[in-house]
Amino acid sequence: MSISAITHTALSGMLAQTKRAGAIANNVANASTPGYGRLNTSFQSVEPTGVQASVTATDQDVDFATELTDLVETEQSYKANAAVFETGADLWDVLMSIKRD
After folding, report:
1. Other C-beta atoms lying within 10 Å of the C-beta of residue 30
2. What confidence tens digit (pLDDT) does each residue in 11-31 have?
3. Rounded CA gap, 9 and 49, in Å?
């Protein structure tokens, strides 16, 4: 796997987690709205590398404990993808430094 593929995968993961965080925020904001159905986020693998998030409405009520748990998981996943992206960028810098020398 190339460094650019690694950073692309990490970036797609961060974008997917951002979309999930938006759905969670929408759920919390609309929890007391009559007739509101919880938004659920699902992830699909995208070839050759990456992930894509899709948000669908359900007929479930919003449970704040579930939303909080999902938010913590989203935060951790985003941080992990950001660390991979930063490591890929650092590796890219080292390779460019070697190439110049």
Report:
1. 15
2. 999 999 999 999 999 999 999
3. 6
For 39, list phi and psi in degrees, rounded to 5: -85, 135
Residue pair 32/82 in contact (Cβ under 8 Å)? The answer is no
Give every CB contact of residue 17 below 8 A, 6+ residues apart in sequence.
53, 74, 77, 78, 81
The DSSP string of 37-52 is --EEEEEEE-SSS-EE
Rounded Cα distance between 42 and 55, Å, is 6
Its pTM stands at: 0.87
Place of tokens 């992930």: 51
pLDDT tens per residue, range 2-11: 888 889 999 9
Q: Say which residues have a Cβ less than 8 Å from residue 100's Cβ, sequence separation at least 6.
A: none
